[in-house]
Write a structure and sequence with these properties.
Layout lengths: L2 H24 L3 E9 L2 E9 L2 E10 L13 H18 L4 E11 L5 E10 L5
Parallel strand pairs: 3-4
Antiparallel strand pairs: 1-2, 2-3, 4-5
């Protein structure tokens, strides 16, 4: 990947995160953290909704030619998110229930964000 492609991809990712945050807020979510890090792991968005802590992975793509954005949250990525989420819960000393969501952001030909929210996208019972 050339440097300009990497920069454009990074820019799209940031725009996708912003679109996801705005979408979640519009749905009544309270944003607690954006790009929260634990060691080498990162959780894109941590939000509160009702009595849940919601850990959100955002996937943004300018095309679905290779598949829907959410398809790129593989088992390895899920394990990383679960590890980081467990650390966050311990650090915050919270006993709230948690959930893992994916927000998929796909840009159309007019660069308009099409946001799809997948609640309970995966569970923390991975081996």
């Amino acid at each position: 990947m050339m440097e300009s492609e990497k920069n454009n991809s990074h820019k799209k990712g940031k725009e996708g995160e912003e679109a996801a945050v705005q979408f979640l807020k519009s749905q009544g979510y309270t944003i607690l953290e954006i790009n929260w890090r634990f060691k080498k792991y990162e959780i894109d968005v941590i939000a509160k909704y009702d009595n849940l802590i919601v850990f959100v992975e955002v996937k943004a793509r300018s095309s679905n030619a290779f598949g829907e954005p959410e398809w790129f949250v593989n088992k390895t990525k899920q394990k990383f998110l679960i590890t980081a989420a467990n650390h966050y819960i311990q650090q915050q000393e919270t006993e709230m229930e948690s959930r893992f969501d994916i927000v998929s952001v796909l840009y159309d030909n007019n660069n308009k964000a099409i946001v799809k929210h997948l609640e309970d996208a995966f569970y923390a019972s991975l081996k």
